[in-house]
Design brief:
- The chain is flat and about 90 Å long.
- By secondary structure, it is mainly β.
- It is built from 6 helices and 73 strands.
- About 5% of the residues lie in helices and about 50% in strands.
């Protein structure tokens, strides 16, 4: 390197350092008194530079680039770089000031406060060959290793404005090795390079019994840059055989404390560990370029963070943003009028941050944790692109990325303490194994194995606290990728990929308290999404091919848990999980050409999970609002061609689940243990269609999907008030276009075997006693619309074949039967058991019925023609069904308080089948008090059912005809009526408005 260049680089770093720090930059001295106080400011920038074994070929001669082995820093330029790089000398002004205060009263002036800023940029340039109108060849081994210790130990215990730490420990190694560049010549390189760069260390301080003491803000960064094994040729030949490894670390635990302090012991670690790589690529322009490379990389930043705020004020809090993920552009081949071949194997690991724990017991505004870990592995590898040339790739990628970790805190006997807020997005972006050709041939091949993880378990406790131990989280797990895609314009292209991917965001939120106020609540909105395009081919006057397999697991959040026993506004859960994959795969589209596509998909997606809480003996406790949404949007197995031959094959196994069962307890509570669910499963399958215009298209598709939103709900409410109520609004909608064939002057065929299961909500179970408690209400909505197995022929041949097995479950398991038959309503639990065998309830306005005595045969005979009585209740009769004769339900307009059922029935008359069938008009929701519905004679409690519409009879109640004895006999699939109870207490003068209020479903 020229002298002027070295001096220029040195001056730039010196000037930048001075501007950054203003008065000066200091660091640990090389020859210091071990008994001397450390400098309060320790900062520096260091650039160890190693240039070795590089060659330049020219028409005149072949030159070996001079060797350079130096360190450029803000203080000096060293002559050599040892294994452990020496720290720069402290700035003279700082060194002079520190020396003057030694042994004086001013020695404690800085009170242990420390500012440390270390940035190291090791650069390795080795084993490169550059040929310009000549030949260049290099073979060698290259190594570089640097280290700087960033350990900090200080103390601010019992002091004000003491023991605080601001630290930057960052390493940014740059590795440029094994590259071959040829311009009108031949360049070849064979290198084995390694680079190790470490910094950081533990940071320890203390702010116990202090004011604004023991706080830590620490950036811990490891961000390696790797540019290795690339071959670039223009009017020449470039050949590369390269092995490269880079390792960067800025690890270190952060430990402090703020016990009995104020504004003390807070920690803000900032771990950053992304890798940046451009490796193993081959580029040829009217030339040949070939690379065969292996590269590995690792970056580690941060560690465990622990502090304490017990007891304290605004102390012991933790806020940790973190970033992890390799970002790579590896093993791509591009040819323009030439040949490019890239073969490589890449392995990377990136980890930022770790576990956090603190304590806010007996405190105010303490022991809280806020996390924002981000995992973002991004890769563009194994892609081939050719323009009037040939491009071939064979790429293998193994990447692991993890940010953040589990979080633990406590908030007992506290105010605004022990809370957790977490926003941990995890994603993976991949463009892999694609081929694109224009007037040439391109093949992209990729084997991809990626893990992207953020956060973890989140636990806290808030006994006897106020606004404490709450958990709020928004996990997001969302891969986005394009792989195994081929496109050709006047050429031939192949895309092939085999992918295994796991993306997980956050973990289980778990909180509990007894005797808390606005504490231990959970609010979670986990989102699982997947935007994936794979095994898709498209050609215009070209040939395309793809054979791609996908195995993806995506999970966001986990099963939330909370408790709120003997508490107020505590232990409640609000969750809104969504699972929404959107996938396009196994599709082929070609206009004039040949196309073969095969896609195999296995995707497992989950957002949230079972919710468990309790609100026993609490006020506004243990309630759950759950609004899960699960869907599955897939365009798979399409064959579309014009003047071409297209064969598309797709297999699909998809599970998309949001939420789960909900379980609570409101015993002895007030507004406790109530469960409100709004579950939705919008499902839009579009598989296995074939469209041909003057060509031949074939689709062969096998798909199995399982879409579930929510689950069963359980609650109890013994001796409670406005508790244990269940309200479900499940919605299940399918809109499918599949297994259709369209042929215009061509042949189109499809064979589609489709199985799907969609479920919204589940069964409801509750029991208890007390005013407005243990009620159930469900309002299901179900829609299915299909355009399937329709052959359309326009001077062509279209054939469709296959099987279909679609199941919709909306609400409770009895939903299918309930849609065909509207059952009679039974006496509410807890009431029928109090009625004697010789008593019936009194009803106002029904003078013909006896009161407090069983009707005699003579009395019933007198009612002949008015009240049909085929038999006493002991003789089972078949229950009534919806009228199916002329008029249907048009003449039934029940006056149900709270719902406009007349309008609902009017809107659904057209949907009513001619007779009761397997699936018919959905059951009517139960609504307001004083429901005017028929009543069966009292008996032992049986399973709950929905009301039957009355048919005839002169007796009336609120304008609705009643027939209390008809329809009591069960059908083959229904439970028999029990025998009448004996020796029960009388309950004869109960007003019907009160008698039926426990099944109204209105809170």
């Amino acid at each position: 390197m020229q002298t002027w260049a070295k001096r220029g680089i040195q001056s730039a770093f010196v000037t930048g350092g001075l501007l950054m720090l203003g008065t000066g930059i200091a660091s640990a001295q090389e020859n210091v008194n071990p008994d001397a106080q450390p400098s309060p400011v320790d900062a520096g920038v260091s650039v160890p530079l190693k240039v070795d074994q590089n060659n330049l070929g020219t028409p005149v001669k072949n030159l070996n680039v001079p060797k350079i082995d130096r360190t450029i820093s803000t203080d000096r330029v060293t002559s050599a770089v040892p294994v452990r790089t020496a720290a720069p000398v402290a700035h003279p002004l700082i060194r002079q000031a520190a020396g003057r205060v030694q042994g004086t009263a001013a020695q404690g002036l800085f009170r242990g406060n420390t500012v440390q800023a270390h940035v190291d940029v090791p650069i390795e340039i080795c084993g490169n060959a550059i040929a310009v109108l000549g030949n260049s060849e290099v073979a060698g081994e290259c190594t570089q290793e640097t280290h700087r210790d960033g350990t900090i130990v200080t103390d601010g215990e019992g002091q004000a404005l003491a023991g605080n730490v601001v630290a930057v420990n960052h390493v940014l190694p740059v590795q440029i090795t094994g590259n071959a560049i040829a311009a009108g010549g031949n360049a070849a390189t064979a290198t084995d390079a390694s680079q190790v760069s470490t910094t950081g260390g533990p940071i320890t301080t203390n702010g116990d019994r202090g004011a604004a003491s023991g706080n830590v803000v620490a950036e811990q960064g490891a961000t390696p840059v790797q540019i290795t094994g690339n071959g670039v040729a223009g009017l020449g030949i470039a050949e590369v055989a390269s092995t490269a490894d880079t390792f960067a670390s800025s690890k270190g635990n952060v430990a402090t404390s703020g016990k009995n302090g104020s504004l003390s012991g807070n920690a803000v670690p900032i771990p950053l560990a992304p890798l940046f790589e451009v490796n193993g690529n081959a580029v040829a322009a009217v030339a040949n370029a070939a690379t065969d490379s292996t590269q590995t990389g690792a970056a580690y930043a941060g560690g465990h963070t622990g502090t304490d705020g017990d007891p304290a004020t605004l102390s012991g809090n933790i806020a940790e943003p973190a970033l992890a993920g390799p970002i790579t552009v590896d093993d791509n081949a591009a040819a323009g009028g030439g040949n490019a071949t890239a073969v490589s194997d890449t392995t990377n690991e990136s980890i930022a941050g770790g576990q956090t724990n603190t304590n806010g017991n007996g405190s105010t505004g303490s022991g809280n944790i806020a996390g924002a870990p981000i995992s973002l592995p991004t890769s563009a590898g194994g892609n081939g692109a050719a323009v009037i040339g040939n491009a071939l790739t064979d790429h293998k990628n193994d990447a692991t990325s993890k940010a953040g970790g589990p979080a633990y805190t406590l908030g007992d006997n506290s105010v605004l303490s022990g809370n957790i807020v977490d926003a941990p997005p995890a994603t993976a972006v991949d463009v892999c194994g694609n081929g694109a050709a224009a007037g040439g041939q391109a093949a992209g091949t990729c084997e991809n194995d990626v893990k992207s993880l953020t956060g973890g378990y989140q636990g806290t406790i808030g006994n006897d606290s106020v606004v404490s131990a709450n958990v709020v989280q928004a996990p997001v797990a969302a891969p986005a990728e394009v792989y195994g895609v081929a496109g050709a314009l006047g050429g031939a292209a192949t895309g092939s990929a085999d992918e295994t991917k796991e993306v997980r965001s956050s973990g289980q939120p778990n909180t509990q308290d007894d005797h808390g106020t606005v504490s231990s609540n959970v609010v979670t909105a986990p989102t699982a999404a997947a935007a994936q395009v794979f095994a898709v081919t498209a050609g215009l006057v070209g040939n395309t091919e793809s054979d791609t397999a996908n195995d993806t697991t995506v999970s966001a959040g986990y099963a939330p848990k909370a408790t709120g026993k003997k508490s107020s506004v505590s232990g409640n859960i609000v969750q809104a999980p969504t699972s929404t994959p959107a996938q396009v795969f196994g599709d082929g589209v070609t206009l004039v050409g040949n196309n073969t596509t095969s896609g195999d998909n296995a995707t497992d997606m989950k957002a949230g999970g079972d919710a468990l809480t309790t609100g026993e003996q609490g006020s506004i406790t243990g309630n759950v609002i759950s609004a899960p949404v699960a869907s599955g949007t897939q365009v798979a197995g399409w064959a579309v061609g014009g003047g071409s031959n297209v064969d598309a094959a797709a297999t699909n196994d998809l599970d998309s689940v949001a939420g789960g069962d909900v379980n609570s307890n409101g015993d002895g509570g007030s507004i406790a243990g109530n469960l409100i669910g709004a579950q939705a499963t919008p499902f839009t399958p579009v598989p296995g269609n074939s469209v041909s215009a003057a060509g031949i298209t074939n689709s062969d598709t096998l798909t199995d999907t399982n879409i579930v939103a929510g689950g069963d709900s359980y609650s109890t409410a013994e001796d409670a008030s406005v508790s244990g109520n269940l309200i479900h609004v499940p919605a299940n909608a399918i809109a499918g276009v599949y297994a259709d064939a369209v042929a215009a002057a061509g042949q189109a065929s499809t064979v589609t075997d489709k199985t799907s299961h969609t479920q919204a909500g589940g069964n409801m179970f509750t029991e208890g006693s007390g005013p407005l408690s243990a009620r159930e209400m469900t309002v299901p909505a179900e829609v299915a619309a299909y355009v399937r197995r329709i052959p359309i022929e326009v001077i062509g041949q279209a054939t469709t074949a296959g099987t279909s097995d679609d199941t919709q479950l909306t609400g409770e398991d009895e939903g299918t039967l309930r849609a065909a038959k509207l059952k009679g309503i039974e006496l509410p639990k807890g009431v029928d058991s109090l009625l004697k065998a010789n008593e019936v309830p009194a009803f106002h306005g029904i003078d013909q019925l006896p009161v407090n005595t069983l009707p005699s045969p003579e009395g019933l005979t007198a009612l002949a023609g008015q009240l049909p009585t085929p038999a006493l209740p002991g003789v089972a009769q078949e229950r009534t069904e919806l009228p199916t004769g002329p008029g249907g339900v048009a003449n039934v307009n029940p006056n149900v308080q709270g719902l406009p059922l007349g309008q609902v029935l009017e809107a659904t008359k057209g949907l009513l089948p001619g007779a009761a069938a397997e699936r018919s008009l959905p059951s009517l929701p139960v609504t307001a008090p004083a429901l005017p519905v028929p009543v069966q004679l009292p008996g032992l409690p049986t399973e709950r059912s929905l009301p039957a519409l009355p048919l005839d009879g002169p007796a009336s109640l609120s304008g609705l005809n009643l027939n209390p004895t008809q329809g009591l006999a069960p059908q083959a699939d229904e439970r028999s009526l029990p025998q009448l109870p004996l020796n029960g207490p009388a309950l004869s003068m109960i007003d019907p408005a009160n008698l039926f209020q426990t099944v109204t479903g209105s809170l």
